[in-house]
Design goal:
By secondary structure, the chain is mainly alpha-helical. The protein has 2 helices and no strands. The longest helix has 23 residues.
Length: 50
């Protein structure tokens, strides 16, 4: 990204402070989804479902 692009993003977020919360929440959910997807293939040793 160029410095000009960084300035545009900073200006946009300054004018729309709610969007910063939206972006933070989206990043939080995406990071949690990655953890869930990584752990989805594993099983728990010692448990047997009858």
């Amino acid at each position: 990204m160029s410095e000009n692009d960084d300035t545009k993003v900073a200006t946009y977020l300054k004018e729309n402070p709610r969007m910063m919360g939206v972006l933070f929440t989206a990043m939080l959910l995406l990071s949690q989804a990655g953890t869930v997807a990584a752990g989805n293939g594993g099983g728990v040793a010692g448990l047997e479902f009858v």
